[in-house]
Amino acid sequence: MTKFPNYTKTIFIDGQWLEAHNGNTLPVQNPATLETITEVSYGDEVEAEQAVRAASQAFRKWSAKTARERSQLLYAAYEKMLEHKEELASILTTEQGKPLKEARAEIDSAASYFLWYAEEANRLYGEIIPSSNKHKRLMVIPQPIGVVAAITPWNFPASMITRKLAPALAAGCTVVLKPAPETPLTAYQIVKILEEVGIPKGVVNLVTGDAVSIGQCWMNHPDVRLITFTGSTEVGRLLMKGSADHVKKLSLELGGHAPIIVFDDADLDLAAEMTLASKFRNCGQTCICANRVYVQKTIWDDFLEKLTEKVRRLSIDIGAKETADIGPLINEEAVQKVQRHLEDAVQKGASVIYGGKRWDGPYPGYFFEPTLLVNVTKEMRVMNEETFGPLLPLQPFEEEEEAIRQANDTPYGLAAYIFTDSIHRAYRVMEKLEYGIIGINDVFPAVAEAPFGGVKQSGLGKEGGKEGIFEFVELKYVSMGIRSS
Ligand SMILES: NC(=O)C1=CN([C@@H]2O[C@H](COP(=O)(O)OP(=O)(O)OC[C@H]3O[C@@H](n4cnc5c(N)ncnc54)[C@H](OP(=O)(O)O)[C@@H]3O)[C@@H](O)[C@H]2O)C=CC1
Ligand SMILES: O=C(O)CCCC(=O)O
């Protein structure tokens, strides 16, 4: 088990590692063992304000660097992250709980955002518009928006940070970052890497501390021009309302309620394997993970048998064990949420066909058995609210249109998945699903080179892809008069 010294200086402002001004600290817990692994600085609006000041001062010089200069620093961060992959993965698992193999995959994915935006920095092209007036030349120039406030969650403590920082820095923005209190050490390590590769002081600032006072400061600060957030829809709404006075730009990656639809012409082994991966990866704490599965009636029994067999083989364990497939949830509230959704469903007539309780293993942490539910109905909370845990309801359907209607019957619109071997059906259904991301015979759509983001109440904007960098720029339109001769 990785043991850490006390990290009382986890606040990074203007190139200095600091304690909180009032000396406050917050314990960080291992969710598998419940040990306190270290204490981190716990700042508030004082540090939040200092961080914005540093970022504002650094903006002019950073945005004036050439794209190539910024790109080189991002590329160096990519290389350094991979160099330290094992250490980073171990820290991530210790504070977040996910199995080491998943933590390693997350570090690869997190580093890939530095690589992708090191490349995209050099391709942030503007446009020349053919003018309808021969005495004018029209152009559009992308310019960095300014200071960006990034607020990130604990479920992907590395990739949710780099997915925001890399495009922001590539575009020429400076950043103030508040990570989740459950996973500040991964954030600390990423900022350390940026410091080590030579990011100028003030360009990236880290404030670990109280969300409400830091959030208030950043929402009310005129110098913060964009808030980029990943987390619950509830907090996303709060940030939207709070940013209204200054008309800030927002990029929000919020909750989801992803359906998987398995059609009778699907490869059932693949569909069962992918359903398992989608639901139980990160113990069900992924915003794009399956929250409900619709299975065509004719293959219901076969699919259920295959899936149950695979779930039975999952090894629940402390994430640090190489053989672990499923680790703990993040905290007691997360366990309680799973329990509430389960009890509500059972009370309304659902049946548990596998799992159904806290894991009775050798560790005191927040473990819950992977659980399968059938006889579910639309009235149950699990069919409407994001569970963020290892609880999977399955429901049969007869016709394609019925499955599409049920899949779309939600205020969320992040990711949806289809399993079918018919290209006709795949395309037809994909077009009708009201989601920002569609997986066809695939449940791993999140990659640096593609635009990730939801519709409806799942958010605003895109992260990743060539689109992701445009969240961090303003498009300046220039109309230029030209004399004939
Ligand atoms: N889309 C996704 O990837 C995620 C979705 N969720 C969903 O949200 C549920 C609750 O999880 P939770 O961790 O509480 O998610 P939150 O949305 O509360 O937290 C996400 C981040 O926002 C911060 N935050 C919370 N309140 C404010 C505020 N008023 N101003 C500024 N920042 C704020 C948090 O800090 P702090 O914790 O210090 O309050 C954290 O850094 C989950 O069960 C899941 O359904 C959660 C995480 C990620
Ligand atoms: O939960 C998320 O917001 C991102 C998923 C990242 C991944 O699939 O690697």
TrEMBL record:
**What keywords does the record list, in alphabetical order?**
Oxidoreductase
InterPro entries in alphabetical order: Ald_DH/histidinol_DH, Ald_DH_C, Ald_DH_CS_CYS, Ald_DH_N, Aldehyde_DH_dom, Aldehyde_DH_NAD(P), Aldehyde_DH_Superfamily
Gene Ontology terms for molecular function: succinate-semialdehyde dehydrogenase (NAD+) activity
Q: Which GO terms describe its biological process?
A: aldehyde metabolic process; gamma-aminobutyric acid catabolic process
Residues of the Aldehyde dehydrogenase domain: 17-478
Classification via SUPFAM superfamilies:
ALDH-like (SSF53720)
- The record places the active site at E253, C287
- Family label: Belongs to the aldehyde dehydrogenase family.
Looking up PANTHER family in the UniProt record yields:
SUCCINATE-SEMIALDEHYDE DEHYDROGENASE, MITOCHONDRIAL
Spell out the protein name for this chain: Aldehyde dehydrogenase
Q: Report the source organism.
A: Parageobacillus galactosidasius
Protein encoded by which gene: gabD
